[in-house]
Amino acid sequence: MVNYRFLGNSGFKVSEITYGNWITHASQVENDAAIKTVHKALDLGITTFDTADAYANTGAESVLGEALKGQRRESLEIFTKVYWPTGPKGPNDTGLSRKHILDSINGSLKRLGTDYVDLYQAHRFDYETPLEETFQAFADIVRQGKVLYIGVSEWTAEQLREGHALATKLGIQLISNQPQYSALWRVIEGKVVPASEELGISQVVWSPMAQGVLSGKYLPGQPLPEGSRATDEKSGADFIKRFLDDDVLTAVQKLKPIAQDAGLTMPQLAIAWVLQNPNVSAALVGASRPEQLEDSVKASGVTLDADTMTAIETALSGVAVTDADATYETSPKKRVV
Prior knowledge:
Strand order of the largest sheet: 3-4-5-6-7-8-9-10
Number of strands: 10
Helix content: 25-40%
CATH class: Alpha Beta
Structural class: alpha/beta
Number of helices: 12
């Protein structure tokens, strides 16, 4: 079964392997298959589910809500997000304004079939809305009982500090950040993680397998595997491009014997690696087939010894991205419409 960790400086626990439905539900995967995969996640002990209103333009939330129908709500931890354009994508259908937040949470609750979400996350930082307006709206929906905790996604260290100060002033809890993080993409380690540790904020990390590259299935100098994420525009092909360099792929192949020595598959090694960071509360994993989850959950509870961690570091030396300044490039300076 899957282990649990506290989320931030709170009493709230989440499964350290968390099911995420970006680019799968209502997009890459037919609804019946998506529902079967969610049920497999539950069978394997995953109780924490992450989605967003923008995924498949609200479709992913609806599929997740259908898949969780009939489950004991108190035994689930449901996360969703607000920021990116949704619906007809009008001028107020995006961002972190009070109007968009209040409209969005009501829509999300309806689609998810629940009275509240456990964690409501600002999907990016909104440079065009006063932060005070955003957090006052968050405080209001917390007090209305529609949201239990507040999180953010891909915020910089400075933004986390500002948000945490406002949350504290308003009497609500900002407990998480959701950044991209893997053995190949380590940009949060320089500034975001130290600030988060100081503030009592945890990371819920996405793409722990670097869009599948750390599975080892992409080989240097070889054609991309048919049906893989790298060949499917609906499956995040744009996101994976940065890792499809022959130097990167050659380095990743060096992880195979390290995984074998640790008694793990390469996907398990990748997920276990992010979970070694004490500031990480959960690794988000997705799946297009139920059996993929059976492999992923075996990374829960794994401890990688110092020699293994050093071997991974050595194998990926020179190709892992560690520049902390990359964290300043994730939120658009103007809202996307």
